[in-house]
Amino acid sequence: MSHIYVYSPSSAVRDKTAFRRGVARLKALGHEVEVDQSALCSHTRFAGADAVRLAAISRAAASAADLALISRGGYGLTRLLAALPCAPLARAIERGMQFVGMSDFTALQCALYAQTGAQTWAGPCLLDDFGTLTEPDDIMAACFDDLLAAQGEGSGWRLPAADLSALAGCLQGRALPAGEPAFQLSQATLWGGNLSVLCALVGTPYLPAVKGGVLFLEDVNEHPYRIERMLSQLLHAGILGQQSALLLGSFNRFELSAHDRGFSLAKVVDWLRSQIRIPVLSGLPFGHVPTKVLLPFGRRVDLLVQGRQALLYWG
Fold first, then answer.
1. Whether 43 is catalytic
2. For 72, phi and psi rounded to 5 degrees?
3. Is the dihedral of CA 239, 243, 249, 254 positive or negative?
4. Active-site residue among 218, 222, 244, 282?
5. Model confidence pLDDT, tens digit, residues 226-261
6. Selecting from 3.30.420.40, 2.40.110.10, 3.50.30.60, 3.40.605.10, what CATH number does the domain 154-313 have?
7. Which of 137, 262, 281, 307 counts the most CB atoms within 10 A of its CB?
8. What gap in Å lies between CA 193 and CA 103, rounded to an integer?
9. Tell me: the pLDDT tens digits for 20-40?
10. Would you say 276 and 240 are in contact if contact means Cβ atoms under 8 Å apart?
11. Is residue 244 a contact partner of residue 214, using CB atoms and an 8 Å limit?
12. Active site residue: 71, 196, 244, 288, which one?
């Protein structure tokens, strides 16, 4: 099977039982799992001091593993970007190594792509996806297996019905002969990740300057007004207007209050669509949720929408 290297570049692992469960589960699937020597280190909220976590990233790049998997996200990678070992990471990826993660890992993905053009994968983490008490999600596990077997070619999902009328308006009446709204985009760069992390990179050399791309976004523990504020930042910075399509994944674990008086995430999406003239497609199965697909950050993709079916191809 595959050689998987587990390391901790961001927040400290507090649930060591889940960590061990995730490692055991990967081993039970037949994989060789190599755990970085500092994977369970702790320094305040981080998985070790900055130098410790930078060394862990370098060891991952030098491990010759098939895949490097982060233990968890949290916070910490933006502190490391100026010293990130981009050249060794890019060389490892060129040799065929896959780097996978999400959430805070978005900072590493963006910086690495901006500095070298190296491609990574937005996908699971050890604790949240393999260290669970229940069995890992079937879709996530299947996508992970496809990546390890070099068989993944794309992903699809069913759009919410509300997306169709918005898409038809965005396309200014262009439709299939049968009248169904349709959209097709070829060879656009797929990039994105956690909305909060992306916004923290605006104005820095670590945010990729992607034009005509497909931008995917997700976030957790952020109220809709905060999500709107961050989307506004990307809008006013000119980033959203330079894309060809925007894909919205899961935005969850927030609570509305009486003060909101009907203000909701759906209202945020409606507002966003009134500000930009590109397709905004929701329902992407990605984010801080069990059911998630793996997405190739930095790879050229084709995007097809027909009826309520959205398809991403990169194979």
1. no
2. -165, 170
3. positive
4. 218
5. 999 999 999 999 999 999 999 999 999 999 999 999
6. 3.50.30.60
7. 281
8. 7
9. 999 999 999 999 999 999 999
10. yes
11. yes
12. 288
Residue 222 Cα distances to 4, 196, 253, 264, angstroms: 32, 9, 7, 12
* Residue 7, burial from CB neighbour count under 10 angstroms (0-12, 13-18, 19+): buried
What percentage of the chain carries pLDDT values higher than 70? 97
Place of tokens 């007004």: 225
**Domain limits, the chain:** 3-148, 154-313
Give the pLDDT confidence of 193-219 residue by residue, as tens digits.
999 999 999 999 999 999 999 999 999
What does the alpha-carbon distance between residue 257 and residue 269 come to, in Å, rounded to a whole number? 19
> Residue 99 and residue 249: Cα distance in Å, rounded?
20
Q: Are strands 120-122 and 154-158 parallel, antiparallel or unpaired?
A: unpaired
Tell me if residue 103 is catalytic: yes
**What order of strands is seen across the sheet that includes strand 300-306?**
154-158, 309-313, 300-306, 182-194, 214-220, 245-252, 280-281
Which residue bears the tokens 């994977």?
39
Active site residue: 103, 196, 244, 282, which one?
103
Predicted local distance difference test score (pLDDT) of residue 173: 47
* Number of CB atoms found within 10 A of residue 236's CB: 12
CA pair distance 288, 72, nearest whole angstrom: 11
Our answer to whether residue 288 is catalytic in this structure is yes
CATH 3.40.50.10740 fits 3-148, yes or no: yes
C-alpha separations of 58 from 54, 84, 86, 213 in Å = 6, 9, 9, 30
Give the DSSP letter string of 245-288. EEEEEEEES----GGGTT--HHHHHHHHHHH-SS-EE---S-SS
